[in-house]
């Protein structure tokens, strides 16, 4: 149990975020929303929670990574510990497979028109985009051109590798496999290269530790999203985002209503407020740097798109295909890396 | 209260332990023999996967080895310090005690991240070595086993030092005088009187450090990294990312079992040392 708690603390400590809990009000509705620890937690408390308070809804936030939300909801067996999930595509597909979501009616969102077509469905709605590519320290290494560059000697000794445990890690490794002549169906070329560079890579490890390693100069190249790049730069770190020649990858972060939730109306209002223009506009700016899903909001300077409508130009992935094979990739990554 | 009734004082804790510790443990054991987390059908598949796999066996050995090395490293530093504490006056004693407890007042997460700053390629140690001209290129420390043991030595030090200080504090100073007046040299007194009496403390400390270092999920992951293979990370990954709860349960029981065996062996040694 101690370790379980420590891991949550790890997330909180990464962003230096305090976790005060919103006090329940005597009147109105109280709902609970899961939120990623760190930057998301801070942003949603500051920007989203006040909007809902105006509607008489008090939101209690539960900081949990996506996989922890799925694990907790499954362990709760039909009595969800929170009303709303916030998930990346991999855990989203797991949630659908495990039947953890209420059927979602997009028509209940007053701001549905602000989302690009297809970004709200019977499972939930997109609330932020993530754009994934290569982050590098421009004072230490030249700008990498593409995914295959990471396997060249000048980058390997400064590279931070993370495995298939996260969405951004998984799609980055898939893109590397493709650049090396492989595909989702054939990851062998990637694993062969990983085995070759293993002894000289600067760091292999937990995704949450990578920004800290970058900041400390242990690594000068990593794969991550624009959000992390902008956040680190705002804290004085020398870091730039490189769009690989094969294109940056993008995916949607989505919200879902937990099956068995007793606050379904409040949950719809919460998601509706999340995609509204004022909230998305505030979240896209300092110090939050979200990639907005609202068509009327312009993404920040580091995001290589001028509107979410351009999302079709980015590399996307089919998680229904990835999820069944991901456990094997995780095992194989462990084994290749442990030598 | 009669002496026979004293055991009732332990009831509240015993009940709480039954409810919040033993019951979940039984559930964990049941999960490891199930086909999935719903516990509807039974199978030995998870145990075959857990123990029939060289990778997992290597992971058990690495984990136990890490615990043992952490015990050795903390003992090497803690024993001399404890002897200084024993010989010191009240002010120095207080300083040593505060210094020993201080790390406990900081979260393990903060201590772990501080070690990134110290061990990194551009960290304090490498900057010093290069500044003094001892090395020309950064020495790999972060993400190596020796770097991890170095960090764990500091992180786990209080767990070794505190039982040791307590054991040494119980030694009657008259015994040292007696040994000296019987012609025992300082070294001989240390070897024949002090260390045997300190042994129960040393063993208690070793048990705590071993259990804590072997299961130090965050330090292993952040300082050790993905190229070092330890059981706690395997348990987490199977439970939280792969969703294979039976395998996670089997690995968790393997971890707990192997740590318990070592702890039990140590406590047996401790019981012997006390009665010797």
UniProtKB/TrEMBL annotation, chain A:
Residues 1-26 form the signal peptide. GO terms for cellular component: outer membrane-bounded periplasmic space. GO terms for molecular function: thiamine binding; thiamine pyrophosphate binding. Keywords: Signal. Gene3D superfamilies: Periplasmic binding protein-like II. It comes from the Bacteria. GO terms for biological process: thiamine transport. InterPro entries: SBP, TAT_signal. PANTHER family: ABC TRANSPORTER SUBSTRATE-BINDING PROTEIN (PTHR30006:SF2), THIAMINE-BINDING PERIPLASMIC PROTEIN-RELATED (PTHR30006). This is Extracellular solute-binding protein.
From TrEMBL, chain B:
Its main location: membrane. One of its GO terms (cellular component) is plasma membrane. One of its GO terms (biological process) is transmembrane transport. It holds the Pfam family BPD_transp_1. It is found in: Cell membrane. Residues 60-266 form the ABC transmembrane type-1 domain. It is a multi-pass membrane protein. Keywords: Cell membrane, Membrane, Transmembrane, Transmembrane helix, Transport. The chain crosses the membrane at residues 58-83, 95-118, 148-172, 193-218, 247-271. The keyword Transmembrane applies. It comes from the Bacteria. Belongs to the binding-protein-dependent transport system permease family. CysTW subfamily. PANTHER family: ABC TRANSPORTER PERMEASE PROTEIN, INNER MEMBRANE ABC TRANSPORTER PERMEASE PROTEIN YDCU-RELATED-RELATED. This is ABC transporter permease. It comes from Neoroseomonas oryzicola.
């Amino acid at each position: 149990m101690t370790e379980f708690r420590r891991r949550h603390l790890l997330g909180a400590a990464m962003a230096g975020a305090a976790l005060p809990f919103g006090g329940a009000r005597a009147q109105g509705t109280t709902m609970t929303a899961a939120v990623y620890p760190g930057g998301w937690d801070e942003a949603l408390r500051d920007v989203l929670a006040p909007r809902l308070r105006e509607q008489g809804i008090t939101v209690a936030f539960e900081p949990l990574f996506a996989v922890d939300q799925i694990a907790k909801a499954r362990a709760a067996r039909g009595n969800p510990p929170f009303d709303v999930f916030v998930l990346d595509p991999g855990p989203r597909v797991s949630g659908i497979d495990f039947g953890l979501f209420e059927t979602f009616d997009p028509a209940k969102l007053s701001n549905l028109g602000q989302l690009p077509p297809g970004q709200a469905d019977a499972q939930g709605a997109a609330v932020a985009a993530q754009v994934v590519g290569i982050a590098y320290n421009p004072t230490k290494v030249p700008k990498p051109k593409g995914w295959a560059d990471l396997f060249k000697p000048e980058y390997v000794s400064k590279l931070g590798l993370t495995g298939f445990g996260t969405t951004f890690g998984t799609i980055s490794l898939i893109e590397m496999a493709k650049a090396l002549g492989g595909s989702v169906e054939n990851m062998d070329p990637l694993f062969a290269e990983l085995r070759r560079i293993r002894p000289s890579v600067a760091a292999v490890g937990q995704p949450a530790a990578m920004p800290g390693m970058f900041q400390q100069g242990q690594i000068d190249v990593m794969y991550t999203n624009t959000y992390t790049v902008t956040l680190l730069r705002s804290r004085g770190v020398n870091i730039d985002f490189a769009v690989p020649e094969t294109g940056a990858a993008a995916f949607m972060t989505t919200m879902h209503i937990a099956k068995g939730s007793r606050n379904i109306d409040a949950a719809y209002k919460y998601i509706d407020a999340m995609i509204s223009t004022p909230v998305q506009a505030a979240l896209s700016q300092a110090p939050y740097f979200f990639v907005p899903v609202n068509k009327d909001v312009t993404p920040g300077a580091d995001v290589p798109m001028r509107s979410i409508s351009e999302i079709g130009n980015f590399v996307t992935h089919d998680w229904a295909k990835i999820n069944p094979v991901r456990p094997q990739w995780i095992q194989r990554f462990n084994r290749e890396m442990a030598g | 209260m009669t002496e026979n009734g004293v055991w009732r004082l332990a009831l509240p804790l015993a009940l709480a332990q039954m409810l919040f510790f033993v019951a979940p443990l039984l559930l964990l054991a049941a999960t490891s023999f199930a086909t999935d987390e719903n516990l509807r059908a039974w199978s030995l598949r998870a145990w075959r996967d857990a123990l029939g796999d060289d990778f997992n066996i290597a992971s058990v050995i690495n984990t136990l080895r890490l615990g043992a090395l952490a015990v050795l490293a903390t003992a090497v530093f803690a024993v001399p310090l404890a002897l200084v504490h024993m010989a010191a006056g009240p002010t120095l004693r207080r300083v040593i005690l505060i210094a020993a407890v201080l790390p406990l007042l900081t979260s393990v997460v903060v201590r772990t991240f501080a070690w990134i700053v110290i061990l990194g390629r551009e960290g304090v140690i490498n900057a010093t070595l290069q500044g003094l001209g001892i090395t020309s290129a950064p020495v790999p420390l972060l993400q190596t086993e020796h770097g991890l043991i170095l960090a764990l030595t500091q992180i786990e030090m209080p767990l070794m030092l505190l039982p040791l200080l307590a054991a040494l504090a119980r030694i009657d100073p008259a015994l040292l005088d007696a040994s000296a007046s019987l012609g025992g040299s300082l070294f001989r007194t240390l070897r024949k009187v002090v260390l045997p009496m300190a042994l129960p403390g040393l063993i208690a400390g070793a048990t705590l450090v071993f259990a804590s270092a072997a299961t130090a999920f965050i330090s292993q992951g952040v300082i050790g990294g993905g190229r070092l293979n330890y059981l706690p990370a395997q348990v987490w990954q199977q439970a939280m990312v792969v969703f294979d709860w039976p395998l996670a349960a089997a690995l968790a029981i393997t971890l707990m079992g192997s740590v318990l065996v070592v702890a039990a062996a140590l406590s047996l040694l401790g019981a012997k040392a006390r009665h010797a």
